[in-house]
Amino acid sequence: MPPVRPWRTVGAVVAATAVLTGLFTGGPPSAAAQEPAPRAVDRFEGEVPFAGPPAEGLFTWGDAAGSHPRLELRERADAPEGGKVLEGRYDIGGWGGFTHDFAFDRPAHDWTAYKGIRLWWYGQNTAPLPPGSGRRIALEIKDGGANGEASELWTTSFTDDWEGWHLVEIPFSAFVYRTDYQPVGGIDQVLGLDRMWGYAVTLPTGGPGAFALDGVELYGTAEPALTTKVVTKSVVHPVEEGGSARVDVSVATTGSGPTGEPVTVTYGTGDGGSAEPGKDYRPVTGSVVFPAGTPSGTTRSITVPTMKDGAAESAETVPLRLTVDGAKAPAEDPLVVVNAHGLPYLDARLPVRRRVADLVSRMSLAEKAGQMTQAERNALKAPGDIAGYGLGSLLSGGGSVPTPNTPEAWAAMVDAYQLRTRATRFQIPLIYGVDAVHGHNNVIGATIMPHNIGIGAGRDPELAARTGAVTAKEVRATGVPWDFAPCVCVTRDERWGRSYEAFGEDPALVTAMETVINGMQGARNGKDLDRNDKVLTSAKHFVGDGGTAFGSSTTGSYTTDQGVTRVSRAELEAVHLAPFAEAVKRGTGTVMPSYSSLDVLGDDRGPVKMHANAEMINGVLKDRMGFEGFVISDWQAIDQIPGDYPGDVRTSVNAGLDMIMVPTNYQEFTRTLTAEVEAGRISTARIDDAVARVLTQKFRLGLFEKPYADTTHLPSIGSPGHRAVAREAVAKSQVLLKNEGAVLPLKPTQKVYVAGSNADDLGNQAGGWTISWQGASGRTTTGTTILEGMRKAAPGADIAWSKDASAPTDGYEVGVVVVGETPYAEGFGDVGNGHDLELSPADKAAVDKVCAAMPCAVLVVSGRPQLIADRLPAVDALVASWLPGTEGDGVADVLYGTRPFTGRLPVTWPRSEAQLPVNVGDSSYDPQFPYGWGLTTLTPTPSGGERALRAVRVAAEVLRTAGRGRSAEGRGLVETARLIVQDKIGQDITEAVAKPFAEADHLLLTGDPAGAIGKLTEAYRAAG
């Protein structure tokens, strides 16, 4: 990623502007004296007009009129350069952006004297984003050709991860030839920089946005204009003691043509390594020559022999110095590493506990601090910092992906990072982590499952385990052994932007779905973790993140997320701690604390940030629950602890955190942690415990024996078999809330009119945490939309599609209107932070038009309930479709009756926002649809009324007495009772009916089918 420099305050902007002014005027700083003065491209003071080619000017473009951004020059007091900036607003459909073309009737510009192009960009984000996970802005420059619209396009991008002005510097070496489109089919595929015609900005899709831009200019001194470079396949070259390392050296040319001049590479083993020449290796010197005319890609090899002395040793390094004439030299010299050998911790036959103890006893404080550090891959200042700081872990935040974003590229990327650890003394492997929260959701083409809220609606623990197994298999195939999932939060207020990450509002439902942990990890004792289809899990977010009060958040513009959870001790235990106790029993390898604060009523402590809560982490999680894994912080979360940074580090580690997701500040964190230990403010015993916990999981994962990706299962990623599991999960997640006149299932011969914003939008149905952190509308990955699934399910049917229902409705027998939300994640999705629980005006209009014209079914694709009370009377069938992921076929399966509707509400569906929070068990409970509600098309309603209810209750009591309350037979008896009761209730859902109905589902999940039937009988009688 091009470097992004954040400027947090106006004062910083003023200071930076002063520096730029000095550069323009030839004044300080003196370090810039040898560089050419920056050259302005656009100052946005009005000197460049809005105009279209062939005249010089700024102009917009897009796939449709609505995709053209709206631009204006505006006066701003905080302008980094001058008094005006370029401001823009956009809502891109397919593609869109803007261009500055230079005049066609004048000579092209010559940029060869400069290193790159830079600009001031005003980010719109109100909370820090993971580097590389914000909205991606593409920047193109126009090289060669006749003019700006007949040139050659070279492209790069940066991500908008910050709030406020920041300076984006992009060296010309970061631009690559655009392969998907060239105005004149391409010219010579060489970025000459001597005939430049302007630049273009492509803006992101996925929802409306805004930006401000200022001070586009050229900067720096041009890099050497050599068209040939020398490359090595890798920097680190591990070798077993006594073996010979082969270092491959290649030449590569711009445009892949033969070399124009001879290239000589002089090499020699040099000083600075830990290996001793003549004892550990035989020194080598020499040169290799690539004559003029050598084909690009030609490789020569250098061999460095090592010597065997038989002693057990840590790894030793041998630098190989390269001097290159006639080409650009590699950015780094190669490093030969004689692998560690003969030490007890390397002996896979020993118990893990002994291996851990041996390794910890050998490590320095700095090495231990490194193992407790997790950095974002995009935040590495240099790849060598992995070894230089002895980092224990890297992660990919949402949207932090390799280029291209393919499974193969993921495996190669992780392996390249892992290779760097071979250059450390003990060659401790990285544990790489990702947020694969509903499938391997960062990877294009992966199988995207329904979000947890849909899995909870499915009420099938065995299927939940299978979805976890599919996710684990796809994640591990890309070389990633650690998944920051599942979220075992209990959502208590659907205004929370993370509510869809929960399995539901009932801790009993969340606990039941934690079979996903064993699907991902295998056996509870961790013995399966070294398999190539299992990953380490992370139960999150400890504890109470789903209970934060609306309005209690102080993070940016968030209203709920990262706020305060105020609960009694009894509610804390029963609601929020219970799922973590289950996760520990199931052997979860890691636990992630919540950003939120916990305020236990009556303890007089007030709110305590969970990352600082030693009572909960040390006292409850580790001591009382017996958690043996390690605790990993959330993204930059310790920075939210009150006090200075050393205090944040000290407090969090002493509270029980074992690894800190820094994620960008790894240099300062390791220094600070080391200083705190040396000062005695963190004990050595606490550090040793933390490191031992981390190393234990690395040994269990088999990373010391097999640090690199086992790509055996790469072909399974997005495979038909995996998608079949997701399709089944989708079908079971669909909750039929209303079905007047038996509109559903549809008949394959019916003429169907389909409308609504989410019928044919893969990104919307997948939701947040899909390819990028916040997700995006449109075809962001591979999959099947709901409309496409319907057409596959009824290939001979007349199925019309009109997103806004503007097409004529005459002649159609039934309408299907698919409405709901657009993607969001975390606090950005909080209600009141640009979101609400209402359907969009366009979706409401589509419902109104279609349902007035014909019998209609409305599908709500969303991460939480939407308020539909005012339109419910006109709707014949209503389905809560949740966020189904990539397999829209699963929705079509239940719409057309290939599978029955069997899903049940995992959360209460409110009548109005004023009712929130509303949950099963509340003393006052009068929702639109109660928790557990869900009609079925599986079987007809049983007869017998209350007499039948008495009979099934007797049978359920027998099962409970026999200890089989959680059996399939018990669930079947309750299902029979539920069908009888729902048929009696119809749509006349009153408080007297809803409260016992919801409580029945809770009792069933706790293993009391007789009690559940008793509550259902109470609801039956209340229905009158």
Automatic annotation (TrEMBL):
Residues 29-220 form the CBM11 domain. The keyword Disulfide bond does not apply. Residues 236-326 form the Calx-beta domain. It catalyses: Hydrolysis of terminal, non-reducing beta-D-glucosyl residues with release of beta-D-glucose. SUPFAM superfamilies: (Trans)glycosidases, Beta-D-glucan exohydrolase, C-terminal domain, CalX-like, Galactose-binding domain-like. Residues 735-936 form the Glycoside hydrolase family 3 C-terminal domain. The keyword Repeat applies. Residues 365-696 form the Glycoside hydrolase family 3 N-terminal domain. It is an enzyme of class 3 (hydrolase). Gene3D superfamilies: 2.60.40.2030, Galactose-binding lectin, Glycoside hydrolase family 3 C-terminal domain, Glycoside hydrolase, family 3, N-terminal domain. Its EC number is 3.2.1.21. PROSITE patterns: GLYCOSYL_HYDROL_F3 (PS00775). GO terms for molecular function: hydrolase activity. Residues 1-33 form the signal peptide. Keywords: Calcium, Glycosidase, Hydrolase, Repeat, Signal. Residues 250-281 are annotated as: Disordered. Belongs to the glycosyl hydrolase 3 family. This is beta-glucosidase. It comes from Streptomyces exfoliatus (Streptomyces hydrogenans).
